[in-house]
Design brief:
heterodimer; A: 95 residues; alpha+beta; 18% helix; globular; B: 293 residues; 1 helix; elongated
Amino acid sequence: MAEKDAEMLEKVLNNRAVKAIDVADNGDKIRRPSVTFQRPDGGSVEVKDFSGKKLRVSKSIVRGGIQQHIPAGTGWADIAADLKYAIHFEDSDFE
Amino acid sequence: MAIEKVKDFYGAKFLIPYSRTTGLPFGVFRVLQEINFERKVDFKDLTGGDAQGAWDTELGQPENSLSVKLKEYPNFVFSLFEGNTPTENAAEAAGYIGTPTNKVGTSVIKATTGIASIAVKSAKIANLPAGRLLLKATAANKIRIYLLGLPKGDAAFQNIGGEIASAEITIPSSSGTVDVDDLGLTITAGSGTVAFTADDTAYVDVRPVNSGSMSVDVGGVTATMSEFGAMVVFPQKSDGAIFYIDIFRVKAFGVPWSAKMREWSEWTLNGKVLVDTANSDKLYRLCQTYPNA
């Protein structure tokens, strides 16, 4: 994980607004929409910053025999950091 | 003049079944155990009266067979010896999840009040099993998941009932999702309020990340076995001699298999060697190349 990505992930997980800026090939500054991390097992984790948004649908995860549930209507800031990392969120999941 | 060298075959290198129509090989068998070509015939003796033996004898009907012991299952064996063509799939870097299908009832897979879709969760793709997942409704919004196949990664059977998911899973309504991390899946609910009928079931076929796959359904009344030619190739001897035998016309049936603890599956191909009218009613041609020494 690049140092820049690690810093951004930390911000996302701790409910701090992310303002990561990249410089495109043509010199324009562009906001990075997400950070994607490659896992050692070959999978990838994409963590996006959905600050200020509320879930449109319920999201749930089953791990180690336990199901954790995030009801629809929950704000991004109220979602536990480990669930932000563990659950795959998409733009369409939010209002 | 030196006495001629002894001639005999040694070992078995390749068996190459080929099309009698095009002449092209169907494939090359490499993991041969043994090849046996047999010619059987009964002698029909003329006996009678009081004699010390037969007065005369003639040959009965000859019977020619080819049996080959193998320890490999290339795809072409199923089309050639079972009459069923395999389906080959390209590499699946993102794994594979088939179309979820209701098995008992119609409430489990339903775009509105059931499960709308099942997808790979890429972050947990290493846990995607191989085989068939069975989903059984246990309540109006709950399911249990069973596996007919091989667990991968973090997945393991939870009990001898074949349950693979580590918990009874609650499916949220209104397009909610459930990430089942141990199986590398994300289940998305239908657009309405989920309302399963208890004991309804559904299934979905899954494959982990792979470099290609095949499947073949064996049997069926329409399966027909084609005749083929068979080239038997021997290893080159240390003195340089080369032997090969072209069997013109063979018909064989069946691809048996076995599963034995810590052993490779060995099977025997049983074929009949037939008279080849295209080769003057002959059976085979043996060719030898003598060493250049």
